From TrEMBL:
Keywords: Activator, Repeat, Transcription, Transcription regulation. The keyword Cell inner membrane does not apply. Residues 490-631 form the PTS EIIA type-2 domain. The keyword Mitochondrion does not apply. It comes from Propionispora hippei DSM 15287. GO terms for biological process: regulation of DNA-templated transcription. Pfam families: HTH_11, Mga, PRD, PTS_EIIA_2. This is PRD domain-containing protein. Residues 177-285, 286-393 form the PRD domain. It comes from the Bacteria. InterPro entries: BglG_antiterminators (IPR050661), HTH_11 (IPR013196), Mga_HTH (IPR007737), PRD (IPR011608), PRD_sf (IPR036634), PTrfase/Anion_transptr (IPR016152), PTS_EIIA_type-2_dom (IPR002178), WH-like_DNA-bd_sf (IPR036388).
Length: 639
């Protein structure tokens, strides 16, 4: 029977049928030697010799590939190996969880012989599984200590419980507890204690918070009954926990009476800290000056990067402050929430999620701890709602052009603007940079400039050529109107900026797209690439379904465009080893807030499971534009 690695190689070849994939690609992806992959390929070749619907081919310097000889039978062939892969993967994951549970229940090192007998695997299989166990434990600050014949988990009790909860080991260990068949089950008694205590203290909670708290207490109780306790050295609490400590003391006093267990003070403090991190829904004065200032500064960072000013949106600031106060506790004490909708939010609200990354980056700078994508998704919802409200502003625009040209010289520009925007302009005025004052800022909606000087650099004015061309027209219409139809959207995908990439890694793809766009739009050498790479450092730009959308950390050009790279051979994009078939490098014009609407339309592409796959059938510019228009049009019909 083929192992997981060989099955994964076969499935990747099926996904990229007819395309050559190199052995070095598989070696890097699987993190094994080239010789190991070469041996795997030999076994795969023997395995597929009898297959009637495909032909396995290998060639020097090209790699290997699968060619389809029977289109009708191929889906069943692919499904056969997918089921094997799923079955093997689930079996191994189940073993790893079993190993984690067994080791977390030990007070001292466990012999490898006993571990092998308890999970019924060979010595070599166990050693291989322990590698995965060590990788999982590392995420929680835990270490797998091994000698020649013994193994144990080392680390704080707090981190061990985080591992149990995050890996869903509590469900594996206590399925019967959640069945709800017994009113006297441990879970039911914990629930009754919590509900009665919260009611007594008039402490409102959501249903989700209550359920999570029940599980939290259940795990703590199970660990304490097994003589695993949190110690004062595990905690370095700096928060004021007075109200939460009172509730936690009452809860654990009742837990102690019902389950006949003595509970140390550190356990009470940790539960109080947990409640603090869940948010205090019962108070109306929870927004401190410090939290409001932190939210305001984070919004200023967003404005600095994207020229989207949300700092005066008091409703947003209140919502973010109420969310951020408990989030700070969760960040500081490694209690960040899980969010099973993170992939949906990333694809459905990409601009909100991207702004959320900037918000989270500011928090990370303050607290020196990474904010998870799950937490960013919660922030993204608030930011997206504010964006929608901001984008509802309509009506004609008052336009001010800042220019050093004399009045006799700007006649052509004035007339051109009037011709282009006759139905959109309420007023068109010209002013020299020396005459510009703060009083002008509240009188006009859009500011243009014919010089890339101070007003352009500070993000106030949108650049326009003194003798405007078609590209200026497109940029200006986008600034005033946004996108009015599908053709408007398609117009910023340039044929000269569409590429098919073979064998390039992420850095090479980004470099190629940036260099081409720099030449096409006459951007300062290196500016675009540096800005895109800076954004990559903040977090992954993988948006799911084989699509990545790198973009500059801040605008470097007045032009809005998307450069595209189609990848017949998928490329590993980030540290999570997400594989990408399509790269959309999105560049929004400087000082052009309307162009940000593009993210809303591209969300339909990110959410389309088949877009990248359909493009690979015929990876051409015309096929890409056709699929783009069809996808956006189809989504528009459903709204």
């Amino acid at each position: 029977m083929l192992n997981l690695r060989k099955l994964e190689i076969i499935l990747e070849l099926c996904e990229n049928a007819e395309s050559w994939v190199t052995a070095s690609h598989f070696a890097k992806k699987q993190q094994v030697s080239l010789r190991t992959i070469q041996n795997d390929i030999k076994q795969i070749k023997n395995e597929l010799t009898a297959a009637s619907c495909v032909e396995f081919q290998a060639a020097p310097r090209k790699g290997c590939r699968i060619t389809i000889t029977d289109d009708a039978a191929f889906p069943a062939f692919k499904d056969f190996y997918y089921k094997q892969f799923t079955s093997s993967s689930m079996y191994q994951n189940g073993r790893i969880n079993q190993i984690l549970l067994l080791l977390l229940e030990q007070h001292r090192a466990m012999s490898l012989y006993d571990l092998e007998n308890q999970i019924y695997v060979s010595h070599s299989t166990l050693l291989n599984d322990l590698k995965y166990v060590a990788e999982i434990l590392e995420k929680y600050g835990l270490e797998l200590l091994r000698s020649s014949n013994k193994v144990m988990i080392d680390g704080s009790e707090v981190n061990k419980r985080l591992c149990i909860l995050d890996q869903n080991l509590v469900i594996t260990n206590a399925t019967e507890i959640f069945s709800g068949n017994s009113d006297n089950s441990t879970m039911d008694r914990i629930k009754n204690i919590l509900v009665e205590t919260f009611v007594s203290f008039k402490h409102p909670v959501t249903e989700a918070t209550l359920n999570n708290t029940i599980v939290q207490i259940y795990v703590a109780l199970h660990r304490m009954q097994s003589c695993f306790f949190i110690t004062p050295t595990d905690l370095k609490i700096t928060e004021n926990l007075a109200p939460e400590c009172e509730i936690a003391t009452e809860v654990y006093q009742r837990i102690s009476e019902v389950f006949f267990i003595r509970i140390p003070e550190a356990e009470i403090d940790y539960f109080a800290l947990y409640m603090k991190g869940q948010g205090d829904f019962g108070r109306t004065d929870v927004i401190s000056t410090e939290v409001d200032h932190l939210v305001l500064e984070a919004l200023k960072e967003i404005n600095k990067a994207h020229d989207i000013d949300l700092t005066n949106n008091l409703k947003l600031r209140i919502a973010l402050a109420l969310h951020t106060a408990p989030l700070i506790v969760r960040i500081k004490y490694d209690m960040q929430l899980k969010n099973h909708l993170v992939d949906y939010i990333r694809q459905a609200f990409p601009q909100g999620f991207d702004l959320g990354i900037y918000f989270a980056a500011y928090l990370q700078k303050i607290f020196h701890k990474r904010v998870s994508d799950e937490e960013i998704a919660f922030i993204a919802i608030h930011l997206y709602s504010a964006l929608v409200q901001k984008q509802k502003e309509d009506g004609t625009k008052r336009i001010l052009v800042i220019s050093s040209m004399r009045q006799s010289e700007n006649i052509l520009l004035r007339q051109t603007l009037l011709n282009w925007l006759s139905n959109d302009i309420a007023e068109l005025a010209f002013i020299s940079p020396t005459e510009m004052s703060d009083s002008q800022l509240d009188l006009y909606d859009i500011f243009l400039t014919t010089e890339k000087g101070a007003y352009y650099d500070m993000g106030l004015a949108f650049y326009i050529n003194a003798f405007p061309n078609q590209q200026d027209y497109l940029n200006l219409k986008l600034a005033v109107d946004g996108f009015k139809n599908i053709d408007d959207i398609a117009s910023i995908f340039y044929k000269d900026l569409f590429f098919i990439s073979h064998g390039e890694n992420r850095e090479a793809i980004i470099r190629r797209l940036c260099q081409s766009a720099t030449a096409h739009f006459h951007i300062e050498d290196g500016d675009l690439q540096n800005a895109v790479l800076q954004r990559e450092q903040l977090g992954s730009t993988f948006f799911g379904n084989g699509i990545a959308a790198p973009h500059p950390i801040s605008a470097v050009s007045s032009d809005s465009f998307v450069a595209v790279a189609a990848l017949p051979q998928p490329v590993e994009w980030d540290k999570d080893k997400n594989m990408v078939k399509l790269v959309l490098m999105i560049c929004i014009g400087k000082n052009n807030t309307k162009a940000f609407h593009l993210w809303n339309y591209l969300s339909t592409v990110f959410a389309n499971r088949y877009f990248a796959e359909q493009l690979m059938v015929n990876p051409s510019y015309h096929n890409f534009v056709r699929l783009l228009k069809e996808t956006i049009a189809e989504n528009s019909k459903t709204k």
